[in-house]
Amino acid sequence: MILQLARFYRDARDGLSRLAWLMAAVQLVNQSGTMVVFFLSLYLTRRLGFLENQAGQVGSAYGLGMLLGTITGGVLSDQLGAPGLMVNVIVLWNTFYMDAALSKLRLKGMK
Fold first, then answer.
1. What are the Cα distances from residue 46, in Å, to 34, 38, 41, 57, 58?
2. pLDDT of amino acid 30
């Protein structure tokens, strides 16, 4: 049984390029982060004192945001191309981030 499994794995591995294995590893790490979502409702209710229905609303908002983000990202990627979309998102995010950081510094009295 173990030898058959090892042979199956070796045969599958030999048929894929190094880049394919690298992409699979990156995808595994990326998707591992989504496991946190399953524990979000427990954290919200037990640690932060949310009611169950409030935790459900947060989970629903997360799912809706993922859906809308995927659709929007696909449309923008079709229009701008993947590199163009990445550059625009990086510039936009850093603009918002710097604005928030500067606002916080101004509140602390720095000029």
1. 20, 14, 8, 16, 14
2. 84
| Joined tokens for residue 58 | 């947060």
Tell me the domain boundaries of the chain.
Answer: 2-80, 81-111
- Closest C-alpha to 34, from 66, 57, 6: 66
Classify 78 in phi/psi space as left (phi over 0), alpha (psi -120 to 50) or beta. Answer: alpha
Mean per-residue pLDDT over the chain, rounded: 90
Angle value at C-alpha 21, between 20 and 26, nearest 5 degrees? 100
Confidence bin at 105 (pLDDT 50/70/90) = very high
- The model carries a pTM of 0.60
What CA–CA distances, in Å, run from 45 to 39, 51, 58, 63, 70?
Answer: 10, 6, 11, 18, 28
Separation CA 43–CA 27 (nearest Å):
26
Q: Give yes or no for residue 68 having a pLDDT over 90.
A: yes
